[in-house]
Every structure is written in structure tokens, then in C-alpha cells.
Amino acid sequence: VQRLAARGKLRRVVVFALGTNGTFTAQQMRQLIRAVGPHRDLVLVNTYEARPWEAGVNRVIAAAAGRYPNVVMANWFATIEHRTSLLWPDEVHPQPSGARLYARMVAGAVRAARTAAAAGPASGSGLPPTTHRVAPLR
């Protein structure tokens, strides 16, 4: 991400899905946020999987979304937890219908990030009340 940012290759909204394959630290999250910079929005997709690091990863992501005004969490956990039939038998990877749900969730989070950025700091978070920076797709 640092190299992409230095070369001007990052877009206005950066989307990162983190935690499915392992854990990461709050320090690594801060490094990512610094690399993305304050003039871009960062959408972080949390994780759903029965692995030991799931809760810790999701806490780090939720904390970042709550702390940084340019960070929004796309809540995959809440979006899929009652729709697990849309996942393959590994209960991690979405089937085609689950992938469409995932894409709609990410697109909604990108829209929320752009809305917040366009509204500016005077309007609070700029997100719809139901988004609260961590809303699932309903």
C-alpha cells in the first residue's frame, strides 16, 4: 500500500478485506491507515469464519472504524451470519449468490464512505444513522 500510494496508484476509496487468512495487530492497522492517508477513504471488510482470530480481527477493524473519520467498516460478519447457506461447505468462501451479497455490502460501504467525505466534518460522520460505521447489508 505504501508503494502504491507513493506512485499515485491508490484510488479515492481503498477497500481492504482483512482477517480471513490470519490475524493482524492494531499497529499494522495504524500503518495501513497512515499509508492510505487522510485524504482517501478506507473501507475495511471484517471477517466471518470459525477461526481463533476472528473476534480479535473484527475488534481491531471495528476500533479503527470508530476512531478514524475516513474509515468505514463493511460488516461481512453481520451480513452473512444468518445467511450461511450462501457459503460453500468450508463456511468461509461465498457461493455465487453469497458473492453477490458480498459485492452489494462492499458497494454500500463505499457509498457510505463517499457520502461521509462529501458531507464534510461539519455534519458529524456524514453516514446514514443505520450505517453507524459498522452496518450489515439487510
Can you tell me about this structure?
The chain is mostly helical. It has 5 helices and 3 strands. The protein has helices spanning 2-6, 26-36, 54-67, 76-80, 96-119, and strands at residues 13-17, 41-45, 71-74. A 3-stranded parallel sheet has the order 1-2-3, sandwiched between helices. Helix 3 links the parallel strand 2 (41-45) and strand 3. The protein starts with a helix and ends in a 19-residue tail after the last helix. Residues 122-132 have low confidence and may be disordered.
What's the rounded overall pLDDT mean? 88
> What order do the strands of the largest sheet run in, or round the barrel if closed?
1-2-3
| Overall form | globular
Structural class: mainly alpha
- Low confidence ranges: 122-132
Main sheet summary: 3 strands, parallel
Q: What's the alpha carbon Rg, rounded to whole Å?
A: 15 Å
Q: Strand content of the residues, in percent?
A: 5-15%
Distance between the termini: 31 Å
Strands, total number: 3
- Pattern of helices and strands: HEHEHEHH
Helix content: 40-55%
Number of helices: 5
